[in-house]
Fold this sequence. Notes:
Blueprint: H1 5-20, E1 28-33, H2 35-43, H3 54-68, E2 77-79, E3 84-89, H4 94-113, H5 124-142, H6 144-155, H7 195-198, H8 201-220, H9 230-237, H10 242-263, H11 265-284, H12 290-300, H13 310-327, H14 331-336, H15 340-344, H16 353-363, H17 366-373, H18 376-382, E4 386-390, E5 395-400, H19 403-414, E6 422-429, E7 434-439, H20 448-462, E8 466-472, E9 475-481, E10 486-490
Parallel strand pairs: 1-3, 7-8
Antiparallel strand pairs: 2-3, 4-5, 6-7, 8-9, 9-10
Amino acid sequence: MTLTSELRELQERVRAVAAGYGLDFFTTQFEIIDYDRLNEIAAYGGFPTRYPHWRFGMEYEQLSKSYAYGLSKIYEMVINTDPAVAYLLEGNRLVDQKIVMAHVYGHVDFFKNNYYFSPTNRRMIDAMANHATRVRRLVDKLGIERVEAFVDTCLSLDNLIDVQSPYIARPAAREAETEVDLEAPRLHTERRYMDEFINPPDVIARELEERARRTAERKQRFPEHPQRDVLLFLLENAPLEGWERDILSVIRDEAYYFAPQGMTKIMNEGWASYWHSRILTEGILDASEIIDFADVHAGVTATSQGRLNPYKLGIELWRDIEHRWNRGMFGAEYDACTSLAERESWNRDVGKGREQMFLVRRLYNDVSFLDEFLTPDFVERQQLYTFGYNPKARQWEISSREFADVKRKLLDGLTNFGQPTIAVRDANFRNRAELLLSHRFLGEPLRVDYAHDVLRSLQRIWKRPVFIETLVEGKGRLLGFDGTDPSDTAWDYKPEGP
């Protein structure tokens, strides 16, 4: 449904105020829809059309019941495309529509200017419709049960992509070994008579032998380097039928489209919340709407007991950056100050807060955002903490309020979306065309039951036994699935990151 004249006028006012603050966004199209259609689009991940699959129906049912029972309400939905498309819920109060419009313009500015969204397909609505058509044709040809079962398999693996690959060039192949590469390292001495004592011949010989062994092993292994994009490796090397390869490519394309949203959730929601607050309270809201706005805004940015609210953490950290850079609370002089009273009253009146915010918006993702700008003062002021289950007390308790612990917990939960880092290590494992994956162990063990489920899905695609090496309770283990039974054996695992 097209906008009414009142809403078109409101959109133009919000757009003008947003642009006046320096926000730079794609042309944004708003559509009015009822809550049934909104829930349908939300179930489709924000898109009007997706391929047929039972999970979308399940998501729609959950959203519909949640709305009907008053448990939750979708206020805004916007698609990262050019032009951007956003939805307004029919029947919302005018103040709600103002909030949604201002919030959407914050998101679209972020989509357009943040580095991590730069490789995304800005015509993804068309791509999604194309995906839907391709899958529906396969359903007509092969039957819904067969196609849906394979989609289930692919979806259980859709996180096995290399989210960094759009931004960096990983080596495709190792350059040929040179003579220098095969030389053992020697300690330098200006006294030649000391050389055999400093570089014993037997040690040098063993090192040369070990290097030759590693070189031969590397040349025999395929791929030569661990490959993080497991889905791409399967597309290129698994014995798939044409229709299976088509579906797997659809799942992989969509996984890469949604990845930047997961990489910038805290920044993006915080940025949009900051700007909807700024835009509305300084030019759009009537005095009679302030209380209603404050009620909605407080609900969105409320502190959630025991859970991380990305809206709350994001907006508070953006405000902290603006405050610190306006007052000059950064740099060597500020860091060297040890007086608590002086640091609290510090104000060099630098006025660079807004400039710094736009710089950070352009270059950072959630991991680098928190790593760079989370401070002990901020953690204490926001009362952040880690918590865990105490088996003795049989209850969940606060584990720590220490800055280092809180920061580590946040970063661990955001790195690779808090999921294990997995890579293809050898597609000819044991010289039997079996697939070996490697878990880059960073301190958090795999859930063995989850790992076995993933191995089942991988085996359906690879058609041969599949394995993953990892650590379980500090000991190397080789988990596997041969198509019939899972396995779990001791393994000499030396963590080797991709």
